[in-house]
Amino acid sequence: MSDSVSANSVNSCVSDPSLKKTFNPFWIWGLAALFYMYQFVLRVAPSVLVEDLMVAFKTNASQIGSLSAIAMYFYSIFQIPSGILSDHLGVRKVVLGSLILCILGTLIFASSSEIEVAKLGRLILGIGSSAAFLCLGKIASQYFPASRRATLFGLAMSVGTIGALNGGPPLAYLVSFLGWRESLFLVSGVGVMIFIINFLFLEKLGASAIQMQVDSQDSDQEGGSLGARILEVFKNRVVWTHAISALGVYLSLAVLADLWGPSFVIQRFKVDKQTAANTLSWMYIGLLVGSLTLSWLSDWLQNRKILIVMSTAAISTLLALFIYLPGLTHLQGTIMIGLLGFFAGAEMLCFTGASEASTPRTAGTVTGIVNTVVMLTGALIQHQVGHLLDSVWTGEVLSDGVRAYSLGNFQYALTLLPILACVSFLSSLFLPNRVSQKSL
């Protein structure tokens, strides 16, 4: 199915008065985006709860890293299965089921007294959140023209950024008044409200007439078994090159913004927890601007590579300066954090470029592969940073019994970030200048 065929099919069907009340791609995209924003709040919550969780579970950095990362592990593992389910069941059923899992996982996490039970809650959350980005990608790929695809991916990242911002300073502020458990119970209540909104208003994606036309065009233009098409995707060098390029772009978010950043900023600039959370929020503000700006530029230039190469080079440099540069002031560090977020917006260009290397019937698989590589490695590095911190811990503890890690400890553990960013930069040099839709 070509993009033009898909768009024309949708437009012709939407023009039918009988379908106008049941199909509006922007409305459907917005409701799915509400879920995507919500799961981002839940995902980044541990970044402002590190010390609270260490006290509550009487544990160390490695265990907290594992607690945070387990959601990302299962988010990654369930990328491709969630894509298959969204194709088979439709966006509405998948979003509603995923919201139930996210709410349940958060309630288990908030009420747990043992870290193993808390991990179970994060595991369920990871499974529930795995379909969020895929559902937005499915709507963008099937029901919008190709000329808007990068912009819609960028807009999706911006929506997630708003959720991440609400999971940073606002959550830290709420925790300071209510406590971390009570705050998460309140966030679960917000999830129930989002579930009710989607249950009432998120209708089934499209109509049978649209799907019949889509399936007809697919069967005419694309052959081969499902297994054969998936195998061809896994053998596609362009897809993997985009995945490796996206990896280094995303790691600064996964490791700094989502978990270890606030603790590092406290040691780096000698500020309090709230100030550290506010500082890291600039990464998401930068991401909000960068994902839209870079996506728009790539659509305008019709060239993803130059922007991805520029962004990976900038991220590699900024990470090295932010982690190691002596005498760095808090203001300078905050500016660097904002710039890291801006250039991290290039992650959406990697998703767009990879999807352009596939046919529409394999676009979901491609998105799942790229997201699996990105998120699974992000989870591994989150955990590994905690392990490295514990490996160089000198035995110092704070008054509440929490392990104290020095600036040098953090600099040693975070060395993985600029190294992997450089690997992504090298990978981006091998990207094609332009990627055209082709049959796999």
Q: What would you note in describing this structure?
A:
The chain is mainly α and 440 residues long. The protein has one domain: Growth Hormone, Chain: A. The chain is built from 22 helices and no strands. Mean pLDDT is 80; it is low at 1-22 and 205-223.
Arithmetic mean of pLDDT: 80
Low-confidence stretches: 1-22, 205-223
Question: What CATH architecture would you give?
Answer: Up-down Bundle
The percentage helix is: over 70%
Q: Give the strand content.
A: under 5%
Give the CATH class. Answer: Mainly Alpha
**How many angstroms separate the termini?**
13 Å
Number of domains: 1
CATH topology: Growth Hormone, Chain: A
Helix and strand pattern: HHHHHHHHHHHHHHHHHHHHHH
The number of helices is 22
Outline type: globular
The name of the CATH superfamily reads: MFS general substrate transporter like domains
Total strand segments: 0
Structural class: mainly alpha
Based on CA atoms alone, the radius of gyration comes out at 21 Å
- Biggest sheet details: none
Provide a compact summary of the structure.
The chain contains 22 helices and no strands. It has 440 residues and is mostly helical.
Keyword list:
single chain; about 450 residues; mainly alpha; Growth Hormone, Chain: A; 22 helices; about 0% strand; globular; disordered N terminus
Question: How do the helices and strands line up, and which of them pair or pack?
Answer:
Elements: H1 3-14, H2 17-20, H3 25-44, H4 50-57, H5 61-77, H6 79-89, H7 91-111, H8 115-129, H9 132-143, H10 149-166, H11 169-178, H12 180-201, H13 208-221, H14 226-234, H15 237-269, H16 273-301, H17 305-324, H18 330-344, H19 347-356, H20 363-391, H21 407-413, H22 416-428
Helix pairs in contact: 1-13, 3-7, 3-9, 3-10, 3-12, 5-8, 5-20, 6-7, 6-20, 7-8, 7-9, 7-12, 9-10, 9-20, 10-16, 10-19, 11-12, 15-16, 15-17, 15-18, 15-19, 15-20, 15-22, 16-18, 17-18, 17-22, 19-20, 20-21
